[in-house]
Amino acid sequence: MGKGRAACCDKSKVKKGAWSCEEDLRLITFIQKHGHQNWRSLPKQAGLLRCGKSCRLRWINYLRPDLKRGNFTPQEEDTIIKLHQSFGNKWSKIASHLPGRTDNEIKNVWNTHLKKRQLIHSEAKLDDSSCAYNSPSSTSVLSHANTIIHEKEEAKRSCSSSYNINASSSSLSNLSQVEIISSPNIVDMDWIFQFNEESNNYLELTRVLQDDGIIEIPLESCDHVDIWDMLDIMDPPLQTGQWT
DNA sequence: AAGTGTTCCAACCGCCTTTAG
DNA sequence: CCTAAAGGCGGTTGGAACACT
Fold first, then answer.
1. Do A144 and A208 belong together in one domain?
2. More exposed terminus of chain A, fewer Cβ within 10 Å: N or C?
3. Which residues form the HTH myb-type domain (predicted)?
4. How many Å from the CA of A209 to C1' of C9?
């Protein structure tokens, strides 16, 4: 054993950066079937060239089925602000009060939106106390401004693409089929692919144009597809208790 | 239309804590 | 109790997407 802490994995042999659609599916399929008792050994068993920590992070922050996907509501944002006042940057503690939200997500929302808003608030409060006789009240102006900020952020975020996914899996056939149906206002096509557990590989991925038949494309080309909805309708994994 | 600046978030890094032997 | 391994956490960053000039 060398000096210091051993690396969690051999950095030269692991892939880094954004996860591909195939990697996501491998991870999902593996956890659905086997759970995640040991993150360190999981990548090898699942056939992933990733560090165990990376798999854990990907699952917890993005793939696990109990995640509440989508924008934070004003209520959730208020909760974060209040909890941050009591806990500070204890993101996991804050996340434990917001079911379906991850510490990473909350941290990002805080750093990108709420921190700024808090700053505006505290500055406005200073103005409010020095110009308390102004009408309409600074508080109502502030509240209005807050609503506008939130609406702008909502509009911006709602532009991101989303997909509806139908999934079916059968323990008898050793085959999982997932059909990704495009969002109606984005593109007019469906995606279908199958994972064969015997060969431990994907049999096919097809892009189905609604009018023009089927065009086969390689699996790697589906990197942009959001697949998390699939988890909502698949069988629960063999993991007991909480996801984290 | 092109170039530049800004925002946002997924993912990484490394430290701390917990657990198993 | 001690040690090493694994899990958990918070800070940071790379780069894609978007906004502005």
1. no
2. N
3. 11-63, 64-118
4. 45
